[in-house]
Write a structure and sequence with these properties.
- By secondary structure, the chain is an alpha/beta fold.
- It has three domains: 74 residues, Alpha-Beta Plaits, CATH 3.30.70; 103 residues, no CATH class; 178 residues, 3-Layer(aba) Sandwich (Rossmann fold).
- It is 33% helix and 27% strand.
- The chain is globular.
Length: 403
């Protein structure tokens, strides 16, 4: 069995291995960048195979994180152009650029060193993680990585230093020095991370995100790498001279981009989690925002009233819903009005209905405080799929006095 599994590993990592039938998304080449980015950001891109041009079409490989029917439906809902799903032959990527192949080789080598390449090995090797997060030199594996019955049995047979060697080899294969594994967010008022550190002495990370310096303890707070498109979008909105209230600042996911790239005059960052505040305070100094960002620690139900009437714009970035502070946000805007950016998880079939209901609710809040504003939806951004059929969206709402 060892020879068979080792041979499979050699074939998968061999850059001369020319082709194999692969599931692909087909689109016109001019739309390829958008589809590629979508697959990559949602952990669906199959990086062991090369994209292929076929006339005017581009074939992009995907892995089966979701079934073909669900993916086809998701793609149709995501894009305003035609995409198709098919299976064609694609060449393997170069070994040096293929972290999946590096991971496969590292795992096979470790199993071989432990003399554990058994009949179950094919199951274990087919169950390797397809996606992960890299923050600085810390690799964060998904919650389900290496926890199957096969892996539990193997780890029970090995000594501590042998398991440490395994985790270290996984980290190196994926381009990191430290390794962690996600766990569900704690059900506390801080929504704390419960990420488990597997390799390394601590979870503090520092990295650059589209020109912004971030720093925080990844074992204590969450950072959603999948929201990168929205962080970039919010940073591309001109806020020159504006005062902004960020009701759920976290470690500065959006605060820092608004401060650096949108050129907001001042941002009031509200945050309840002390560990997030530690990261945000670090980033204030690292990015030179000591004067342009004020951190308001504590429950935003108590801190937001101190900001009534001061903001040109309010950012409401809590999922699954930020509705608890909509009334506060309306009152934080200046009497002449301003902008709201409302994050929410919404079923794909309810987007129009939710938008209309949201505007109606905001109008009631505004009216109850004597603000006779015209409130309209300027844009609905579909950030990413939160789960099958449920979008993480951001509704840009403009509030202004009637002319």
């Amino acid at each position: 069995m060892f020879k068979v599994v080792a041979l499979i590993a050699d074939i998968m990592s061999d850059s001369n291995y020319q082709s194999a039938m692969t599931n692909v998304v087909l689109c016109i080449q001019e739309n390829g960048e958008r589809v590629h980015r979508f697959l990559q950001e949602n952990g669906l891109l199959e990086t062991t195979r090369k994209p292929k041009s076929i006339g005017k079409m581009l074939a992009l490989p995907f892995n089966l994180q979701v079934n073909k029917k669900d993916l086809e439906e998701i793609l149709q809902d995501t894009f305003d152009f035609e995409v198709q799903i098919d299976s064609i032959e694609l060449e393997a990527t170069e070994t040096s650029n293929n972290p999946h192949a590096r991971l496969h080789r590292a795992v096979v080598a470790w199993l071989s060193s432990q003399q554990m390449l058994e009949n179950e090995s094919e199951n274990m090797l087919s169950d390797l993680p397809k996606k992960w997060q890299l923050l600085g030199d810390l690799v964060i594996l998904p919650e389900a990585a290496f926890i199957s019955e096969y892996w539990r049995e193997i780890f029970n047979k090995t000594r501590r230093h042998e398991r440490d060697d395994f985790w270290f080899n996984v980290a190196k294969a994926l381009g990191g020095e430290r390794l962690a594994r996600q766990h569900p967010i704690a059900k506390d008022k801080y929504r704390s991370s419960q990420t488990e550190l597997l390799v390394g002495e601590n979870g503090w990370v520092e990295f650059l995100d589209h020109g912004v310096k971030f720093g925080f303890d990844a074992t204590k707070v969450m950072f959603s790498a999948g929201n990168v498109t929205e962080r970039r979008r919010i940073g591309s909105i001109t806020m020159d001279g504006e005062v902004v209230v960020d009701a759920y600042a976290g470690v500065g996911y959006y605060t820092l981009h608004m401060a650096l790239r949108s050129k907001a005059k001042h941002i009031h960052a509200c945050e309840i989690n002390p560990d997030s505040i530690s990261g945000l305070s670090w980033a204030q100094e690292a990015n030179g925002f000591e004067q342009s960002v004020t951190v308001h620690s504590g429950d935003n139900q108590e801190t937001l009233p101190n900001l009534y009437g001061q903001a040109d714009r309010c950012h409401l970035g809590l999922l699954p819903s930020s509705e608890a502070v909509w009334d506060h946000a309306i009152r934080c805007l200046k009497p002449k009005g301003g902008w709201l950016h409302i994050h929410m998880n919404v079923h794909k079939n309810n987007l129009e209905e939710w938008t209309a209901e949201t505007l109606e609710t905001l109008e009631k809040y505004a009216g109850s405080h004597g603000r006779n504003w015209q409130i309209k939806a300027a844009h609905l951004e579909r950030v990413k799929w939160f789960s099958p059929h449920v979008w993480h969206v951001v509704l840009d709402v403009e509030c202004k006095e009637h002319s």
